Amino acid sequence: KFSPDGSRLVGLSYSHEVTVWEVDRWTIVRRIPAAECADWQSVLDFAPDGLALVTGHFDHHLRALDLASGDTIFDVPEAHPEPITCVAWSPNGSIIASGSGFSGGPIRLWEATSGKAIGMLEGHTSWISHLIFSADSRRLYSASADQTIRIWDIEHRRCRAILRGSNDEIWGL
User: Fold this and answer.
1) Distance (Å, rounded) from C-alpha 1 to C-alpha 87?
2) pTM here?
């Protein structure tokens, strides 16, 4: 995945390592080993400034990492009762959203600086496959195996619309 400004690229390998490259020189600027990061079924997203990374894990952990130092900003050990399947960092930098699988459950919202839980969005009836914020951070869009896309009002923590029409699981936005 590319950082918001396009200056960095991050990759997650099967050997559990996150590698961060500077795009202009294609040099590695950070390697984050498995013990600090992920299993192969992790998901990740950059902070809007590109200086941090959030990772969601099959072992239910939600972690934020400082890319300059490699230090953990926060680690939420049981962020969801099931494996985390998607994460998204809001463009204004204040909120991280996470979804899980496989029986459904709420989308959870986290304070981006501390990892403190700040709310839930309930409605999907199967696992959440993808999350993306609107450019103004006021809405969150979620795709699910329940064959719907939902549009959420972040401030009021409610669903504004449900888009139907797919005959199968929706895996991306």
Assistant:
1) 13
2) 0.91
